[in-house]
Amino acid sequence: MAAFDLVATLDRIQEDLYKTSEDYRKHVSNKKAHFITLNPNKIKTQVKREMENRGAYGFNKLPPEINEVINTEVVSGSFIIGLTEATLYGFN
Predict the structure, then answer these.
(1) Alpha-carbon distance 36 to 80, whole Å?
(2) Nearest to residue 45, comparing CAs of 64, 71, 68, 65?
(3) What 3-state DSSP class applies to 48?
(4) Buried-exposed string 25-45: b where 16+ CB fall within 10 A, e elsewhere
(5) Residue 90: left if φ>0, alpha if ψ -120 to 50, beta else—which one?
(6) In 11, 24, 25, 31, which residue has its Cα 20 to 30 A from 77's Cα atom?
């Protein structure tokens, strides 16, 4: 078998393993580094939109009390810190 054919065969086998093998994922793919960027302002906006939609308040019509809680918890970082810790150590 020519070197080119061998490399092509190995590449195909590796692709098949990557797609279908739980063992391959457990020992190779799941160990790859993942980078997550948290942006408090974007999270705050998303939380507000979710509250508007779930509470049927309408766009930009959340009560001041809810806005205050969102601003305090998300922007101050306690939400971000909690999310970071949960990501690093697991949700318990």
Answers:
(1) 12
(2) 71
(3) helix
(4) eeeeeeeeeeeeeeeeeebbe
(5) left
(6) 31
Q: Answer whether 24's CB lies under 8 Å from 18's CB.
A: yes
Q: What is the DSSP secondary structure assignment for residue 28, as one 8-state letter?
A: T
| 80 token code pair | 């971000």
Q: Which amino acid is at 15?
A: E
* C-alpha span between 60 and 51 (Å, rounded): 10
Q: How far apart are CA 88 and CA 85, in angstroms?
A: 5
Predicted TM-score of the model (pTM): 0.50
pLDDT in tens, 31-44: 777 777 778 888 88
Half-sphere exposure of 9 (CA within 13 A, CB side): 6
